[in-house]
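Before relying on records like the one below, remember that each one covers exactly one chain. Contacts with other chains, cofactors or solvent are not represented anywhere in the record.
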Amino acid sequence: MFNNLEQSSNDINEVTKNLDGIISEIKNAEGALNYLTSDEQLVKDIDSTMFYIKESTYKLNQNMEALKHNFLFRGYFRKLERQKKARK
């Protein structure tokens, strides 16, 4: 039992050393993870960028749907649908 306890203690010490090393690398490195953990403005910029991408995608889908019903483009989209059905 003493050997198990000693082995567990050694394992815990090793894990702690590894975690300390990883945390040190994150804090001292110039990688993306360091910027994400230390630069609040970068995180806010990424969040707002993702919001605008989602919003733009939604609006683009609305515009494409409107184009499908426009009389100038209706024939083109019908042709695409016929080609899709012919491939199946």
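The mean pLDDT is 85.
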